[in-house]
Amino acid sequence: LENQQGNRQNKQMEKCPRVTVCGYPLSIFFIVVNEFCERFSYYGMRAVLVLYFKYFLKWDDDFATTIYHTFVALCYLTPILGAIIADSWLGKFKTIIYLSIVYAAGQIVLAVSAIHDITDTNKDGVPDNMTFHVALSMVGLLLIALGTGGIKPCVAAFGGDQFSDEQEKQRSTFFSIFYLSINAGSLLSTIITPILRAQQCGIHTKQQCYPLAFGVPAALMVVALIVFIVGSGMYNKTAPQGNILVKVCKCVGFAIKNRFRHRDSRFPKREHWMDWAEEKYDKLLIAQVKMVLKVLFLFIPLPMFWALFDQQGSRWTLQATTMDGNFGVFVVQPDQMQTVNPILILVLVPVMDSIVYPLISKCNLNFSPLKRMTVGMFLAALAFVAAALVQLQIDVSLFKYYVNLNVPALFTLPISSDLFVLIFRVKFMILDEATSQTCVYEQTLKFGSSFTLLIPPTLTLGQMCQGIVEVTDINPNSVHMAWLIPQYFLITAGEVVFSVTGLEFSYSQAPSNMKAVLQAGWLLTVAVGNIIVLIVAEAATLPDQWAEYILFASLLILVCIIFAIMAYFYTYIDPVQIEAQFSQPEDEKKRKSLEMTKKDSIEKRKHSDSNSLYQTKM
Known about the structure:
Elements: H1 2-12, E1 13-14, E2 20-21, E3 24-25, H2 27-47, H3 49-56, H4 61-90, H5 92-113, H6 130-160, H7 168-197, E4 200-201, E5 207-208, H8 210-230, E6 237-238, H9 244-261, H10 283-298, H11 303-309, H12 315-320, H13 340-362, H14 369-398, E7 411-416, E8 424-432, E9 437-445, E10 450-455, E11 469-474, H15 485-508, H16 515-539, H17 545-568, H18 575-606
Antiparallel strand pairs: 1-6, 2-3, 4-5, 7-10, 8-9, 10-11
């Protein structure tokens, strides 16, 4: 029996000649490079996406935020589809290949949609057919969401498949390197793509270079696909063996349907509603599903945390566009402020694990995983309170008008800096056509500033254009981007305490064969959190942005209290012990069956006329 099972497992896995480097399969290096390029592609595109919506497609802040979070929600819904396709149909390798092609196509389509010259027939720098650009952008984002979400649950698991059972240590090291490549890709892309976006490019007129900002991530995704294909001859490819998530859903569905059929009072009640699945499914599976559902119930309040957390790429980026990013030595683009998050993660994770948690433990404080998650949610709420305070200062500094209406003018020339353009100097040449005299006027434009130049009839043409009156319509942004760092610190500290602990808690409370189900549930909370943002952004009619920040903070504090109550009544379990309770009876049955078979054989041998052969069936 064991030999037959081993033969079936060997058939399910296509083994390739193993090439190792320092004890590691060479194939994993292709997987790590692939993941780095893919994460660079995704986070690089996402870093500039909300600004693309606002300044290229000309959407208002609310609609740009809505579409941004709809896209992010899709990116976290499609992993469930990808896992089912990989485990039940194509296998991990083919799923990664096919969906990466879809992914790369989406990135290319998005980059093409950002080329304003395609429909700029009058060459004025403004697309004449904005519907075409919007439609192309939406097609690109839909393909990207399908691709990035579809391969998300496959790549890490496929990397783990490259190791044998004796390489447990190497497998653990691989996952550390794998997640390091994710952080490295996201950090570098969030720094680089805003710089590319700030460049000026175009055939007829020079505009913000969104095609380059999207084109480089598209190129990296193509590189990721090529690198992964190059290593195909070295991979161990496991055949699809069925998806546990589908099996769990079928079990739950049968229990609900069977309970509904026996809703009449003459049928005796059962201890748990999942026990109504006993007619079709074994008790071990039902016990495992019960453990999973117990954890998933705790997941219900969690989307609110992600509703706040993912606004770093939308509301907080838009907030940064109204602030001064001049740090003296360098100038920070608004979309580059998102790099603060991965940088702080690299710092805070070891600090929490090596200093904070051990100190709390030495103080004999019961800082359980669920209490940590509650603290993380509270920190995220404080981050939005900090964002609201910063927004109040921005609102004070942004709308101060100083208009002088008493200066006689020949004509006026309004000039302004785009809200997130670097500090720069512009030059205007003024020509007197009658005398052919000229003068050059220089003006410094700062973040968010708007000026009107009043040119009086008495203007003296000369080298300095003396006589022009500068009127300040909107003051330059006086609130510095450095004031965003406290809110980024709070939200990142909340993420470290909440997200890392949440995954650790989920894995410790679930059966070993159902970790994927909880991973799907965790990703689903992220998707629902983004849906909450787009609902609030469209439904809330708050006149001020700071009020919306306070609304989100208040909602999260309310949810935090609910979660704390749920956590108080939660009882921690040991899945191994529970599973052992159901496996022991089966083992006992097998032992008794074996003893009865042996006993029958002995009896037969006693009554036989001569020495005869006998068989023991197992």
